[in-house]
Amino acid sequence: MKKQFAVIGLGRFGGSICKSLMNEGMDVLAIDQDEEKVNEFASIATQAVIADSTDEKALKSLGIRNFDHVVVAIGDNIQASILTTLILDEMKVKHITVKAQNDYHETVLNRIGAHEIVHPERDMGIRIAHNVVSDNVLDYLELSDEHSIVELAAGPTIDGKTIVDLDVRSTYGCNILAIKRNEELTVSPEPEVKLYEGDILIIIGADADISRLESYWIDEN
Ligand code: ATP
Question: Could you tell me the CA-to-CA distances from 100 to 59, 72, 86, 91, 216 in Å, in that order?
Answer without folding.
Answer: 21, 9, 14, 21, 36
